[in-house]
Amino acid sequence: AQRVTQPEKLLSVFKGAPVELKCNYSYSGSPELFWYVQYSRQRLQLLLRHISRESIKGFTADLNKGETSFHLKKPFAQEEDSAMYYCALNSLQGAQKLVFGQGTRLTINP
Amino acid sequence: ETGVTQTPRHLVMGMTNKKSLKCEQHLGHNAMYWYKQSAKKPLELMFVYSLEERVENNSVPSRFSPECPNSSHLFLHLHTLQPEDSALYLCASSKGDRGNTEAFFGQGTRLTVV
After folding, report:
1. Closest approach of A95 to chain B, Cα-based (Å)
2. What is the C-alpha to C-alpha distance for residues B35 and B22, in angstroms, rounded to an integer?
3. Is the CB of B43 less than 8 angstroms away from the CB of A95?
4. Is the dihedral of CA A67, A70, A72, A75 positive or negative?
5. pLDDT single digits (tens) A19-45
6. Mean pLDDT, to the nearest integer, of B89-104?
7. Per the CB < 8 Å rule, is B41 touching A100?
8. Cβ of residue A9 closer than 8 Å to a chain B Cβ
């Protein structure tokens, strides 16, 4: 079974400080990992995916298969980063089944 | 607008009512999803349709009945719901191709069961 765990429901950091949102997954097959973000009063949208290896809005995430983790990082937080962040896993085999973690609410303090 | 539209945005219904939620996308996607988002639980995958066939039914009670008449439309028919079914119901769609699985979400329907 696919499972995604985000251990922190809430995370608060000061502007300019580094940010790390944790994500661990459980899946026996080949996973495709994503981070989705939901800003206030906006719909859920894709932030980045592990396959593309991009940096989006200063955020990066590296898939660590040994630790089954996909933590989201940003070296210098900005106030506009305040949002709800969801880690998600999809299978690269079989039918599509995008499963989400519980989400982490990130607050950036001025 | 990202192209996934859900109606209605808000719905209040009694436990004996029958209602339907509608989702529409014109992005050319082949896969559509229903998720439930409630305050105390993570986003719960309910149903997945791929090429109009249901490929996932995540142990959802039968009082929720999905329908996918074509690749652009997805419905969730509701019947004799319980108060604990009150939640935000999100629809999403994706191309469904390997390596091209970005999901686009609607704004959701806020359902209240009284």
Report:
1. 7
2. 13
3. no
4. positive
5. 999 999 998 877 889 999 999 989 999
6. 83
7. no
8. no
